[in-house]
Amino acid sequence: MAETEETLKRIQAHKGVVATMVVNAEGIPIRTTLDNSTTVHYAGLLHQLTMKARSTVRDIDPQNDLTFLRIRSKKHEIMVAPDKEYLLIVIQNPSE
Amino acid sequence: MLPSLKPSRAAAALPRGAAQGRRGCGLRQKLRTAFGSRKNVSILGRSHILTSMGTAVQKAAQEHRQHDVRVFDDEGKDVTPHPLFRPDPKTAAPKQSKLLAFSDSSGAAGSVFLPFSIYQTSEEDGRSVAPHSRTSESSRISKSTMSITESVLDGIAESGSLQDTAVSSPDVQVRREEIKEQLTEEDLDKRVDIYLTETETLRMLDLPTVVVSVESEDAARVLERNKIYVDVCKNRPGNDRFVEKMMQTINGATKNKKVQCDKIIMEDKGIVVTTWDLYDSYNTPQVEPTSKAEGSRAPTEKRSTSSVTKDQATPAAAERGSITSTTILESAGLARVHEEEKCHTEATLRSENFQQNLFFMERILMENIFQHKLAAYRQFPVLTDPVVTLEAGSTLAAIKEAEQEEHDKKNMDKKEQKEMLSDPSILPELNKTSDEMVPPSLEQLWSYRCDLTHQHNVSSMAWSKVNLDLLAVGYGAFDFKEQKEGLACCWSLKNPMWPERIFQCEHGVTALDFSMATPNLLAAGMYNGTIVVYNVQSSDSTTEFHSGECSAKHTGPVWQLKWVELDIGTTEGNKRERLISISADGRITQWLIQEGLGCIDLMKIKRTRSKKENLPAEKERKSEALISQWAAGMCFDFHPKDTYLYLAGTEEGLIHKCSRSCNRQFLKTYRGHKGPVYKVAWNPFTTDTFLSCSVDWSVILWHQNSQSPILTFSSTTTVVHDIMWSPKSAFIFAAASESKVEIWDLRISILDPVITRFADPEAKFTSVLFAKNTDCLLVGDSRGEVSVFELQDLAAGSSNEVDALNDVIGPALFPVAK
């Protein structure tokens, strides 16, 4: 548990990291560095996208599964580590 | 025909309206339902009872509905018209018997069922019900009806007034609720089997056809009959046998009958079937119908993608059915869900999956941050992000082209440089390319550092033998005065900001090496002489082996450790790996890993008396007692080809060539250094030469046949801590002195280094390490940083290096070889 906390703190403290969020399967934030409404907004949208991505991956090969999702946009990179019970979301500004 | 039943008090107040309602859902009643769902029916009926009882209370006095009218003819026979819907008495019979039994067992509650089904099954029962309502009105009528109809009404006398029924109904109601409560709690999780059966086909209208096909079997007969009929019709008019007569019939009054049923609730259910859905359904084991399973299946349904709790609540609510109890139990359910949620969040944070995901996330973040540097490390061409550099509105294509041009040019430059460097004579002629020629340099890519290692002196570095991206760094002070706790960290290329493994040690770590045979073992030597072996697969600091228990442990700091593959035994191919250490107590020991560390001394370094001439005045010195018989060993290196041969450097400044087969005598002693020798290294390409560095500010190149130095490189005015030959070229080596790190290329110059890199004023470089799989140099300093430098524009080796090296050192060798 302590190691998890430490790692989470390190991630939050990295240069360029805009936000770190851990959201459970219902969209309720467990840990977040943003305000609640934004977190819920992100969580809802990314949940749907993750579902779709997972469906795509598994449709092609049912034995495969989605492990990580990265969305690179003009301003940021959104990285999502999906799981059955939670979503780990980190938003980074890679050019800094 | 009438069943002999005990009617209930509740039944007494049952008006026709409710009965009618019951009839409407008679079809539903036909379903043979299990116990659990029967209560559904009963509940619905209960609501009806409630409503109907309410109305009964109000309208009891006004009971004068036509439907309750019972028609009696003069003789008093009951000629009430039959109801339109007449269910099959056959199927009704067993039900009645069931109910019979049921009524016997449970009192008022059970009998609630009775009136409904009784009413359904036969119209005679309706007769039994009606008089109950009637009894409220007048006893006279009841008496009369009782006298007329038999059996069922035996117990009616008890249920006298409306008052009683009104009173009893709440009782019944309460009791019914209680019983219902019990059931719901117990049966909530039970599997409820619902059997759906078809009812019998009810023929409302049957119009047989009057048309027969010509080809059917009866056709002939029908035709014949038709013919006869035609004949009869023909004969009719004027025939005496036919007489016309008229008759008047009574046309019965038409009656409209309406039935109202409950609204049939329709539900749409849809699923998007995907390949993986099918795969999952076939392959996952039977999952218990827990709420979690429901929640996980929910996303596949088209209609809801909402939260797990909602899905939990809705099926549960559907099961419970009634309005009042739903609210009670839902709130209880929600409270339960809340607690579950709290435990859930804790569990998710603690789960291993989460930790792993965090681990990956960190690595990916690092990749984003360090992407360019890592690409340079791996010697990939570095592409800049076009979006980032898009400022002046130039097109993407243009920029890419420009990059390509630059890159091409750089490649060309490199090639030209290589040609130039290998052939120095052409150098002055290439004027046009002189301004493009870039001198070799070190470019810093990144440095491994973190808060934990801050201000710990880097004493040693070692690559893993298997994974060339895994670096072990030992932190420990060299000085006696600066001793504090030491660290051994394993750094990975994928995360330059935090080490993968951290091993805390009580004493400063002065030597490190990874094993080859068992690549997960890391041996560390400490300032107090202990040697520990860590297993890097585990992340805690427990040691696999500790030399503390060994009786022959070192008593001085272990200055160097190496895992060496030695030829053991007489056969050539028999190679075993042994851990060899040298320490300040003058011993070179070989350690065996067999359930603990066992050691054998390979050599004890005796102090050798210096061979300088003694001036007469110093004659007394010889008789002085020496503090120790053994000279402190500082470094050693095994010959790359011959594993019996090794060199050892001592604190006295001497380098001894020794053999494993003889542990008392040195084969040769090389004198040249004036201070302790910190490092010796055999040249990995030409196995006759070796390099040594020492406190006396110099680096000396030796040939093993000559006991005096071949070449001396003294370009610094500080202690040279570390040297290493480049794994790619026989001419290149790196030297770390405190204030700077130098790269020497012996083909270019033997007087000056080709690259010099100065250290920050506060830091002192203490160790160097070449990377094997890339052109990079790692330099550790006294602040705890390990900087990674890229060697740029340094010439690669050519094939005839060995000869070239001999050419270089030849002139120096000749005077001695004689």
UniProtKB/TrEMBL annotation, chain A:
GO terms for biological process: microtubule-based movement. The keyword Cytoplasm applies. This is Dynein light chain roadblock. Residues 4-92 form the Roadblock/LAMTOR2 domain. Belongs to the GAMAD family. Pfam families: Robl_LC7. Keywords: Cytoplasm, Cytoskeleton, Dynein, Microtubule, Motor protein, Transport. It is found in: Cytoplasm, Cytoskeleton. It comes from Phasianus colchicus (Common pheasant). Its main location: cytoplasm. Acts as one of several non-catalytic accessory components of the cytoplasmic dynein 1 complex that are thought to be involved in linking dynein to cargos and to adapter proteins that regulate dynein function. Cytoplasmic dynein 1 acts as a motor for the intracellular retrograde motility of vesicles and organelles along microtubules. It comes from the Eukaryota. The keyword Nucleus does not apply.
